[in-house]
Amino acid sequence: MQKHIDFYTKQLGMRLLRQRDIPSDKYSNAFLGYGPETTHFAVELTYNYGVDSYDLGEGFGHFGVALPDVYKAADTIKAGGGTITREAGPVKGGSSVIAFARDPTGYLWELIQRPEPIREPLCQVMLRVGDLQRSIDYFTQALGMKLLRTRDVPDYKYTLAFLGYGDEASECVVELTYNYGVTEYAKGNAYAQVALSTKDVYKTAEAIKALGYTVSREPGPVPGIGTKITATIDPDGYKWVFVDEADFLEELK
Predict the structure, then answer these.
(1) Catalytic residue among 110, 120, 168, 175
(2) Active site residue 110
(3) Does residue 117 have a cis bond before it (omega within 30 degrees)?
(4) What are phi and psi of 247, to 5 degrees?
(5) Which helix (H) or strand (E) holds 3?
């Protein structure tokens, strides 16, 4: 756990927001981000006692972090012993400056250059999907997100869709990637879920069921913590957890 905390704080500039240990279930968590969990997206790291490696699979793509100077950020990562898998520079056919870094487990991080002020540096979660319209329907209907934009890149045979609850410039968004002709991906056992806030997990679960989607975890409290959650599985097998807002705020105290 500590080497990951060091990577995120020293090389990506995040803050360690809190930690917790659940010995009864043999795991511990660390939460990191660029601001308080009440107003910012956060990364939740989970260490399962005695497990030292995971299969990353093929479905999860990368996290995105917006930074004012990607060249400087890439140099900082390399100076700290981290791995840059794509050197900083403009994207092919465009002017946006990006780089890619790999964390100690192997997750990729896209470093995206944006002008300051940057309200939410943790800006993207990229997932590969087998049917883009099917996924857009799920995200807009079951999760209540808005389709922000789509982009087709026929030269490289893929299409992107960006969805979220607010503008890309100020909120974290989901980037869905459809690679032409690829209908499914191995999920592995490393990437777990994205958690979202809701006023009532019971009503949320019923609404998801009414739309014909899968609720994989019935609403109720988490053992050892008490916060009420419910979970749903999207058409590609990714898990999305809804967390009771009032319980979560109490958990943070």
Answers:
(1) 110
(2) yes
(3) yes
(4) -60, -40
(5) helix 2-6
Edge-to-edge, what's the strand order for the sheet holding 42-48? Answer: 15-22, 27-33, 42-48
Which DSSP letter does residue 120 get?
A: -
Contact status, residue 66 vs residue 197, Cβ threshold 8 Å? no
Distance, CA of 215 to CA of 241 (rounded, Å): 10
- Summarize pLDDT for 163-193 with one digit per residue, the tens: 999 999 999 999 999 999 999 999 999 999 9
The 3-state DSSP class for residue 12 equals: coil
Q: Produce one character per residue of 19-40: b if its CB has 16 or more CB atoms within 10 Å, e if not.
A: eeeeeeeeebebbbbbbebeeb
Q: Which residue bears the tokens 């927001």? A: 17
Q: Does residue 93 surpass a pLDDT of 80?
A: no
C-beta separation of 173 from 119 below 8 A: no
pLDDT tens by residue, 97-133: 999 999 999 999 999 999 999 999 999 999 999 999 9
Q: What is the biggest distance separating any 2 CA atoms in the chain, rounded to whole angstroms?
A: 52
Compute CA distances 109 → 14, 100, 146, 157, 204, whole Å: 13, 6, 24, 22, 31
- Tell me the C-alpha to C-alpha distance, in Å, between residue 193 and each of 155, 157, 241: 31, 27, 7
